[in-house]
Amino acid sequence: MSLEMYLDLFSQPCRSVYIFAQKNDIQFDYKKISLFEGYQYSEEYGKISLLRKVPAIKDGDFCLAESVAIMLYLAEKCHTPDHWYPADLQKRARVNEYLSWQHSAIRIHGSKMFWFKLLIPKALGVEIPKEKMDNAVEDLNASLNLFEEKFLQDRPFIVGDQISLADLVAIVEIMQPVGAGMDVFENRPKLKAWKDRVRAEIGAELFDEAHQAILYAQEAVKTMDPKKMEHFKPKILRYFLS
Ligand SMILES: N[C@@H](CCC(=O)N[C@@H](CS)C(=O)NCC(=O)O)C(=O)O
């Protein structure tokens, strides 16, 4: 039975899983779960993932959620090249270190920028107050500083000379605020050079294809009917505006 992947490429973790599978020639059936349409709450998707988030996969009878768990499963199952998740103890620990840190740093702050600049103004019809926005930009910049100083240092990639899952997870998150119109690479030559290396390593065509939706997000959101975003309102009020 073929591998099914439940994805929406607006979502950063979906892009990492998608790129990882494509780059490693892992065959799968693409099942689009449109977050804007609220498909994650459908009865059918509840059978795939009770977490009601994307990505998720179904491999035969086996359903799995969480992007990192999915990529590690695929790496082991498909024997992907070692550099993605090195067998070397300390290199692997470096990948794990980044994957453990990023959730509460780059991911949360980059994602917040997308909500603050694009989704919340559309869904609620109001701009985010300046002070709140300034604080969010400051948080994201602090995370990017740590990314450059602690995780990248003077290495081509996070673990050294080769790309790993850590770089893949990092780039998809760092592109999220870019999709909201924030040029995170401005005045950050080290970050920009790293991004160019990661894009070249993944392959420019695949990288651009996976990021197409997010890079056109400003246009897409402009023409979106705010009524379609009703299901996001409780989350917005609870997590972002409380
Ligand atoms: N830790 C999870 C995060 C998954 C996640 O938060 N997905 C978001 C999109 S980026 C989602 O499905 N949100 C739907 C919702 O909250 O309704 C992973 O890495 O897979």
TrEMBL record:
Family matches, as Pfam families: GST_C (PF00043), GST_N (PF02798)
Keyword line: Cytoplasm, Transferase
EC number(s) on file: 2.5.1.18
InterPro entries: Glutathione-S-Trfase_C-like (IPR010987), Glutathione-S-Trfase_C_sf (IPR036282), Glutathione_S-Trfase (IPR040079), Glutathione_S-Trfase_N (IPR004045), GST_C (IPR004046), GST_C_Theta (IPR040077), GST_N_Theta (IPR040075), GST_Theta (IPR051369)
UniProt catalytic activity: RX + glutathione = an S-substituted glutathione + a halide anion + H(+)
Chief site of localization: cytoplasm
Cellular component GO terms held in the UniProt record: cytoplasm
Domain GST C-terminal: 88-224
Record-linked CDD domains: GST_C_Theta (cd03183), GST_N_Theta (cd03050)
Enzyme category, top tier: transferase
Assembly, per entry: Homodimer.
Family from the record: Belongs to the GST superfamily. Theta family.
Protein name per Swiss-Prot or TrEMBL: glutathione transferase
Organism: Sinocyclocheilus grahami
